[in-house]
């Protein structure tokens, strides 16, 4: 009987591990979107989500199945207010329905991935190593694309490394998330080189938000001891030398030999002289849409304007700010949607997971200031699910240790 139970356990462990690793290499790398957009495969990302959802159903019969109550509560609340605001403000029609569909898909994806990563420490360990490999692949892709901007079928930004993510900002965000979850797997002597390599990969995206996010995570990991403080001087000196080199003749000659588009050149000019206000107009356009979203919020601060409200204006871009995006839709309640999800997946973290949760939470809250797609991007959502599973696992491990001491 025990042998039968052990075989059943081994089967579920192998099956769950396969799903977890497959989910990382499918969704965290965002290769499913890249293959569809580039025309290599005909199946849209939705097909992959449905497939993983179906294949995760057998895990309901596993003894290790557990979706944290905090995740379930947040998902239920998110869908409730979305449906309520959809009913109260139905004037946006098809755009509002599309926004509602995206939110329902977000919830399905979160719950599905939370089930796949359910609380088994060995699966979390294997998953984090898979993330480490995905980060190395992402950095390699960035180097390749920087040297040859058309290596990804001209789907990138022409000089700003995007890789499989197709968007340079998303690329930088993914590398930082991967670094957060994988750096502590390495021996201390290898952590700083890995973090520095990630920093170079992030810089190649020329994403200001990602560069700031990388610095924030490095500072947090230094103060909590994941990175050695006495080695901080070395990479700080290296960054200083690199920044000085941006204005050198060598850098200018390198840029002349690369096929960079105007947007990339403007970004580089901004980094070379941050005080220059007219070198790159992206910041101005983002400020304009942020002001417009704030005006929408102040007109209806308590109830908002209904879901999808920022999709109806005559602007080419949306808010680029998660908080303003939801505040325009739901009023003051919208400001708490993202922070509450961060709290839900990190509140009971213990041990090493606590430090990962601290860096993850701080970075996501910062990233919400630069992107309005935080709760749509699957490479981000999958990390929320993994964080929730690791938090639950760390809490159970501490509880088990305390019970053995008594």
Features:
406 residues; mainly alpha; 17 helices; 0% strand; globular; disordered N terminus
General description of the model:
There is one protein chain. With 406 residues, this protein is mainly alpha-helical. Helix content is 68%, strand content 0%. Helix 6 runs antiparallel to helix 7 and helix 6 packs across helix 8. It starts with a helix and ends with a helix.
The strand count comes to 0
Query: What percent of residues adopt helix (DSSP H or I)?
Result: 55-70%
Instruction: Return the string of H and E elements.
Output: HHHHHHHHHHHHHHHHH
**First-residue to last-residue Cα separation:** 31 Å
Brief summary of the model shown:
The chain has 406 residues and is an all-alpha fold. It has helices at 2-28, 31-37, 45-55, 69-88, 94-116, 121-147, 168-182, 188-203, 208-223, 232-245, 249-256, 262-272, 282-299, 322-330, 337-346, 352-367, 378-405.
How do the helices and strands line up, and which of them pair or pack?
Elements: H1 2-28, H2 31-37, H3 45-55, H4 69-88, H5 94-116, H6 121-147, H7 168-182, H8 188-203, H9 208-223, H10 232-245, H11 249-256, H12 262-272, H13 282-299, H14 322-330, H15 337-346, H16 352-367, H17 378-405
């Amino acid at each position: 009987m025990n042998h039968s139970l052990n075989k059943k356990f081994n089967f579920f462990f192998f099956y769950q591990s396969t799903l977890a690793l497959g989910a990382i290499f499918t969704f965290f790398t965002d290769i499913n979107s890249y293959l569809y957009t580039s025309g290599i495969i005909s199946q849209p990302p939705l097909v992959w989500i449905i497939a993983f959802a179906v294949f995760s159903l057998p895990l309901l019969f596993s003894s290790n199945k557990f979706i944290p109550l905090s995740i379930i509560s947040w998902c239920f609340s998110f869908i409730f207010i979305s449906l309520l605001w959809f009913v109260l403000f139905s004037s946006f029609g098809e755009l509002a329905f599309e926004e509602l569909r995206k939110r329902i898909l977000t919830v399905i994806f979160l719950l599905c991935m939370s089930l796949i990563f359910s609380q088994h420490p060995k699966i979390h360990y294997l998953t984090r190593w898979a993330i480490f490999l995905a980060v190395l692949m992402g950095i390699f892709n960035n180097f390749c694309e920087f040297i040859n901007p058309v290596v990804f079928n001209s789907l990138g930004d022409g000089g700003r490394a995007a890789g499989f993510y197709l968007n340079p900002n998303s690329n930088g965000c993914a590398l930082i998330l991967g670094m957060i979850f994988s750096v502590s797997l390495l021996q201390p002597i290898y952590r700083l080189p890995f973090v520095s390599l990630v920093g170079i990969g992030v810089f190649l995206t020329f994403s200001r938000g990602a560069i700031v996010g990388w610095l924030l995570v490095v500072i947090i990991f230094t103060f909590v001891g994941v990175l050695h403080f006495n080695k901080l001087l070395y990479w700080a000196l290296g960054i200083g030398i690199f920044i000085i080199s941006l204005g050198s003749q060598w850098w200018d000659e390198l840029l002349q030999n690369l096929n960079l588009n105007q947007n990339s050149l403007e970004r580089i000019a901004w980094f070379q002289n941050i005080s220059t206000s007219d070198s790159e107009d992206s910041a101005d356009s983002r400020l304009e849409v942020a002001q417009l979203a704030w005006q929408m919020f102040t007109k209806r601060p308590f109830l908002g304007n209904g879901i999808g409200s920022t999709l109806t204006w005559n602007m080419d871009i949306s808010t680029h700010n998660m908080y303003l995006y939801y505040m325009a839709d739901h009023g003051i309640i919208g400001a708490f949607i993202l922070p509450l999800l961060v709290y839900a997946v990190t509140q009971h973290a213990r041990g090493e997971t606590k430090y990962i949760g601290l860096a993850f939470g701080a970075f996501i809250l910062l990233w919400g200031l630069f992107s309005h797609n935080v709760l749509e991007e699957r490479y981000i959502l999958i990390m929320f699910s993994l964080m929730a599973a690791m938090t639950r696992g760390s809490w159970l491990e501490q509880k088990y240790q305390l019970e053995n001491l008594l």
